[in-house]
Amino acid sequence: MELIHILATLFIAVAGFLVARRIGIPVPAMIGSMLAVGIISAFTGFTEMPAPIKAISQGISGAFIGLSISRRDVRNVPHMIKPLILLITLLTVNTISLGIVFHVFFGWDLMTGLLSCVAGGIADVSLIAMDLDADASTVAIMQTLRLATVLAFLPSWVQFMTRNIDEEEDSGPSLDMSHIANPTVLDRFINTQRRKTAFTLIIALTCGAVGYASGIPAGSLVCSLIVVAALNIFTDACAMPMTIKRIAQVLAGSLVGSSVTPETISHLNTIVGPVIIMMAMYMIVNFTFSKIATKTGMLDMKSALFASSPGGASDMALIAGDLGADLAKIAVLQICRVIYASALMPQVAILVVRLMA
Known about the structure:
Elements: H1 3-23, H2 28-44, H3 53-67, H4 71-76, H5 81-106, H6 110-116, H7 122-131, H8 136-161, H9 185-189, H10 193-214, H11 219-234, H12 242-258, H13 262-266, H14 272-295, H15 301-307, H16 313-323, H17 327-356
Helix pairs in contact: 1-2, 1-12, 2-12, 3-7, 3-10, 3-11, 3-12, 5-6, 5-14, 5-17, 6-7, 6-8, 6-17, 7-8, 7-12, 8-15, 10-11, 14-15, 15-16, 15-17, 16-17
């Protein structure tokens, strides 16, 4: 592997990110870099990225998921256990069903079909796909189209579904929003933003290396997620700026883009049917969860619709705030969904593939 190829790939990835950010594409660091590198890779085969970069990207991605878990979220999980179990059950059944449909009727390998339908982060699921020998470029394209469709149509869908609903609708049990600060020895030593960032980055990269060496599927991401989440729950010593996350996303986009071949481009027309089916099924899941959650008094309709939408957790929070939904409950369910999708759903996919073999 020539250094010039790696440097050229990184340059193309950064250029793709900057263009994507300029024109307003969602998750520009991941999608922009992936598209730019993917196009060059398909037509020239010039792009290359070393495999160990995957451990770095997964380690940082896992750390950011871990940083989204706070003590308050952990205290609130028992209050949200019923809607959480319902949501995870529906998403799991949906993923397995769609994966089998794509495998049987569209000729995809089963692992690619399953991971294409996992409601997780684009970068996280794409990197996991590389670990599990799935078609990472197809998975990334499906994940990107899922996010773009949700962001484009969700606000209108929520307004349509809640057009005849009373604003005073019961939203279920209230959550504990208090913040309890109990400084630890670690907090007293790591007490500046710079130290917190350095500490968290070291933890993320170390966990990424350990997970990569372990050979466990998605081990880098899961190891980093667990360690950083534990530290974030019991201390205030962890923090990372968004710049580092964007760097990890650019690296992830470069990796996925480098796997694109002329055959990938020629097979893009086979994705249209699966995308339509996938989004139709996600709308059914969204509708079913929301109806059950409101009928049983677990959530109000707006919050249920946003909590079960397969978009980015931060994107859902921003849109939900504008439309008057319960942000705290949405955040708890969305965070749990992302953790489940990243840490547990790959193991479910492996089990399904083994059972179907």
